[in-house]
Predict the 3D structure of the following.
Amino acid sequence: MTTRTQTDTAVVAGATGMMGRQLVRLLLEDPTYQRIVVLVRRGIDITHPKLVEKQVSFDRLESELDASLLKDADVFCTLGTTMKQAGSKEAFRKVDHQYPLALAKAALQHGAASYVIVSAMWASEQSRMFYTRVKGQLERDLLSLGLPRLIILRPSLLLGDREKESFGDRATALVFRLLDPLLIGPLARMKAIQCEDVAQVMVMMARESGPTVEVLESEVISLRSSNKNSRTGV
């Protein structure tokens, strides 16, 4: 069990994606955090007194981050792409493995309090699917670092407003919505989940004390989000 380190700083990589935008919004609304540092390639269209933009080259991430940003911070990683967007397996691996691992190494080196990352359902280094195999390899490598607190979330299909939503994205989301009533018992973990719910649990977990490593499957993420909303009357 690790003791929660009091911090007023959150660092976010992946702030321009569907999940990252939701996460940044929640962090800006959270009174616990007074400084939200977003690591970006270029400026973003958000203005807020608590928001700090740090433009970086993700290929040189470890050398571009230091203790002034990461010391005692909660570090959130929502970096990710698709094979279509990446264009090749090598480019996909860079975004979904190399960059998150470099961020974790910098977080460890400069004394971050926690590292919270969105992985994927069925992530396994033994997976026959390239996507889930890369996610599993990343989880394996993160575990080997010995971070003071590592929180891995493995959501099912993410629902939310995508800036570049393809026909395939819309069709997949529709199928999952139609199947939702049938996904009960052991199949419940396959239910699609809202990005906002995942982001909410990311923030919740970072602020809590807990084991050095926690892995949350999709159904647990949904349950924790529902419990929090019922307590707050949302």
